[in-house]
Amino acid sequence: MDLNSYRFSKEHEWVRLDGLVAVIGITEHAAGELGDIVFVELPKVGAEYTKDAELGTIESVKTVSSIYSPITGSVVETNDSLSSEPNLVNDSAYEKGWLAKMALSDPSEVDSLMSYPEYLTFVG
User: Residue-wise over 25-48: b if at least 16 C-beta within 10 A, else e?
Assistant: First the structure.
């Protein structure tokens, strides 16, 4: 896995492009800050979201946090494995713990997100 092909938001979501579909998840940093994740509320397939709109929530033993859409688009798939295994977000944030796949409305929005080195600087 090459994190240099991912883009990152200031709200700690990541995007990996697969053609005109964006795979979205939360960063390993965010998952670590949340602690043990016990429930993930995913968006509905077919729902449309604008950039920065609330996409769902993640509940950990510590808190409940909102997930924000890093791009504008419509949900084409969700990671149904998370309903029975929410800990996949902790264990494999960038691979098995992805949250949703969205068809991009404006592919240029991805360019406004941070690169991996920029994200590392951002989280310090």
Answer: bbbbbbbeebeebeebbbbeeebe
pLDDT tens digits for range 27-86: 999 999 999 999 999 999 999 999 999 999 999 999 999 999 999 999 999 999 999 999
Q: Which amino acid is at 102?
A: M
Report the C-alpha gap between 90 and 18 in whole angstroms: 23
- Map out the domains of the chain with their CATH numbers: 3-104 (2.40.50.100)
Instruction: Phi first, then psi: give them for residue 66, nearest 5 degrees.
Output: -80, 150
Confidence grade of residue 116 (pLDDT, cut at 50, 70, 90): very high
Residue 9 contacts residue 114 (beta carbons within 8 Å): yes
51 Cα distance to chain centroid: 12
- For the entire predicted model, the pTM comes to 0.94
Q: Tell the residue number behind the tokens 């969700």, with chain if given.
A: 78
Q: Are 1 and 97 in contact (CB under 8 A)?
A: no
